[in-house]
Every structure is written in structure tokens, then in C-alpha cells.
Design goal:
The chain is of the alpha/beta class and 328 residues long. The protein has a domain of 32 residues. Helix content is 34%, strand content 20%. It has a 6-stranded mixed sheet. Helix 3 links the parallel strand 1 and strand 2. Helix 3 runs parallel beside helix 11. The longest helix is centred in the middle third of the chain and has 16 residues. The structure holds flavin-adenine dinucleotide. Flavin-adenine dinucleotide binds next to helix 3, strand 2, helix 8, helix 10 and helix 11.
Length: 328
């Protein structure tokens, strides 16, 4: 009788997870032996969050990383490789991260430096003149294109700070990735479709690169960065440089983010970096060609590069946890 009740509970939970229900009196025993093997390509935020969830559920997980654990979300005790401010309105995501890492309280302020003076960004009111002054050159340098009306509408009205979200701060990325990947095997290697991997494959790396660019290159915009120690401080955490004759687009004062050593980060546009997927009709057509072969081969796509979408930290975690939930 007790056993029957246990079985009933399991069947209900399978039903709630939308999995096919198979009546089997040995279900508990079967579940024990249903350990699966996953090969996850990319140990950035998406790959590590999925890996943690699958490993916690008792599955065998191997992470493959070609460069750096943490992907774009990397820091040392002096600075971040690229500026990353955590911001979200979702308490559960804030608490998810807090399980693994400290989040230093920080409110982000941004200014634009153009024509010899500083402007608060976003300005209290975006007039046409300010739009041209603050947005046009920045967009041309970053995207090689004029800013769209949509970009103008996306600029949020704040009370001076850059983000409106309830939860904001600086994540200790070293702690986050060390804890997310605890007891998970990580193999340093660049993986392509020509590699034979064990088990089910989850791709969080660039889909065009994985398939050896067989249909052509997907378009991305990106940055490169350099860092230097400085005695001089910037007036706020980040300065945008929209003037075309300044080669950089942003400077970051990592002292303001709470890092040690007084470092300034300088970020330049870099056409070879796969950072921001450029989504338009043509690129989405190309992406869907790659996705078709991935689907056919049963490869699960996740993260910024696997799905060819821009995700902030919070949406990356939401997407990664959803992917893990669908798999399980
Ligand atoms: C410049 C910049 C600034 C940003 N600032 C913010 C911010 O302030 N706040 C915020 O919320 N979000 C920010 N983001 C977004 C944030 O970086 C992403 O949400 C996050 O990095 C996505 O994680 P990911 O794992 O999908 O991608 P990635 O971090 O790119 O990780 C992918 C990993 O896969 C590896 N890889 C790729 N291909 C292969 C392969 N073939 N074999 C093996 N390994 C492979 C890569 O080396 C990389 O480590 C910013 C993004 C950029 C580009």
C-alpha cells in the first residue's frame, strides 16, 4: 500500500513535468538507473548554469571550454574583462546567484563625453539634438549603422541612474564560476561538429563556428578591451564616447565598481569578436539553416551564441534553467 502511494506520487510528478507517463511498478528503480550523460559546449554563464542543474540531478556532465571559464563574465581582483553590471527585477534570479556568489551593492551611473563636455546618460529628456549628439556616433562606431527609432524608444527613463531594476550589483564572478562548476569535469578544447562527444549535446557556443561555417558566417558586433592602472578617477562608473575621432567607445572606472588597484578599462569596437548577435531578416534566415541541422542531430541550443540572441545575465540564467528543465 505504501509502495503504491509512492508510485502514485511519482506518476503525478512526471505528469506535472509533461513527460510521457508509463505505468511501471519498478519506476523508482528505473529512475535510479536513468542517469544520463551530457556534453556541454561552452563554460560561460549558460553552460555552467545548465551543468550545475544537471549534475545536481545526478547526471554525468562534461563541460568543454575553448578559452575561459565564465565566458564574457570574467573578472580578477582588479577589474572585469568587459563591464558587467547585474540588474534584474526578478528576486528568484538574485537569490539564485546569491547561493553561489557575493553581489556587491552598486548603482550604475553613465555619462557621455562629447564635444568637450559630459552629459548624464540617459538624459532626463532625449531631445532630437541630444539623440544626435549622444547616440549617432556611438551607434556608428559600435554597429556600423545609425541608431534605429527602436533603439531610441528602448532608452529607459530613470532617476539619473542607468538601470531601473530593483536588484543591482557587481557579482563576484570568480566565486560564481568556481561554485557553479564544483565537482564537474571541464575539458579545455574547442569543439566542432567533427568531434565525437558522449551522450546528449548542449551547444552554448557559436552555432556557425560549430558547424564549420558551412552556410556562411553569422554577423556579430563586438568589443576588445584593455586595462590600465590610473591615479585619475572618472566622474561616474562608465563614460560613453560618441565622437568619431575617439577610437574607443567606453571607459570604465573599476574603482567605482569596488575592485582593488584603481584600474580603468577601455573598450574599443572589434568586428572580429562574437559578442552581440546582429539579428535581421537575412541573419535569422541563415541562423535557421544552422538550427535545422542542430535540431536534426538532436543538439540542444542554449545561451547567447547557441540561440543567436542577446541575453543579459538574468535572462541567460532564466533561459539556461528553462533548457535544463525541458531536458529533465
Ligand atoms: C560587452 C558586453 C557587456 C555586457 N554587459 C552586461 C551587463 O552589464 N549586464 C548584464 O546583465 N549582461 C551583460 N552582458 C551579457 C552577458 O555577457 C551575457 O548574458 C552572458 O555572457 C551570456 O553567457 P553565455 O554563456 O550565453 O555566453 P558566453 O559568456 O559567451 O559563453 C560562451 C562560452 O562558450 C565558449 N565556446 C564557444 N564556442 C566554443 C566551442 N566551439 N568549443 C568550446 N567552447 C566554446 C566560449 O569560449 C565562452 O566561454 C554583456 C555582454 C557583452 C557582450
Amino acid at each position: 500500500m505504501i509502495e503504491k502511494e509512492g508510485l502514485k506520487t511519482e506518476i503525478i510528478s512526471l505528469f506535472l513535468n509533461n513527460l510521457p507517463i508509463v505505468f511501471n511498478p519498478n519506476l523508482s528503480q528505473r529512475k535510479e538507473t536513468m542517469k544520463r550523460t551530457f556534453s556541454i559546449i561552452g563554460a560561460g554563464l549558460a553552460g555552467c548554469v545548465i551543468a550545475r542543474k544537471l549534475a545536481d540531478e545526478g547526471h554525468k556532465v562534461v563541460l568543454y571550454e575553448k578559452e575561459h571559464i565564465g565566458g564574457l563574465c570574467r573578472d580578477n581582483e582588479n577589474y572585469q574583462e568587459f563591464t558587467h553590471i547585474f540588474h534584474t527585477n526578478k528576486k528568484e534570479i538574485y537569490e539564485y546567484i546569491k547561493q553561489y556568489a557575493e553581489i556587491r551593492p552598486y548603482i550604475h551611473f553613465v555619462m557621455s563625453y562629447t564635444n568637450g563636455r559630459y552629459y548624464l546618460f540617459p538624459p532626463e529628456q532625449m531631445t532630437d539634438e541630444l539623440f544626435n549628439r549622444l547616440m549617432v556616433g556611438y551607434s556608428l562606431k559600435m554597429w556600423g549603422d545609425l541608431p534605429s527609432e527602436e533603439a531610441r524608444n528602448r532608452i529607459k527613463h530613470t532617476n539619473g541612474s542607468y538601470f531601473n531594476d530593483i536588484y543591482q550589483g557587481i557579482i563576484n564572478f570568480r566565486q560564481l564560476f568556481s561554485n557553479l562548476t564544483k565537482n564537474i569535469t571541464i575539458i579545455k578544447n574547442k569543439i566542432g561538429c567533427y568531434h565525437l562527444l558522449d551522450g546528449e549535446i548542449i551547444l552554448t557556443g557559436a552555432i556557425d563556428e560549430y558547424f564549420d561555417y558551412c552556410f556562411g558566417n553569422l554577423p556579430y558586433a563586438g568589443m576588445k578591451s584593455t586595462h590600465c592602472k590610473s591615479e585619475t578617477r572618472l566622474p561616474v562608473g562608465a563614460i560613453h564616447f560618441p565622437d568619431m575621432n575617439d577610437p574607443y567607445v567606453r571607459m570604465i572606472d573599476y574603482d567605482k565598481y569596488g575592485y582593488k588597484g584603481g584600474y580603468i578599462g577601455i573598450e574599443f569596437p572589434d568586428k572580429s569578436a562574437k559578442h552581440y548577435p546582429v539579428r535581421n531578416e537575412l541573419s535569422m534566415k541563415l541562423y535557421n539553416k544552422y538550427k535545422k541541422i542542430a535540431d536534426k542531430e538532436g543538439i540542444i541550443l542554449a545561451g547567447r551564441l547557441g540561440t543567436f540572441s542577446y541575453f543579459d545575465i538574468d535572462t541567460t540564467i532564466i533561459n539556461a534553467l528553462e533548457v535544463a528543465k525541458c531536458i529533465l
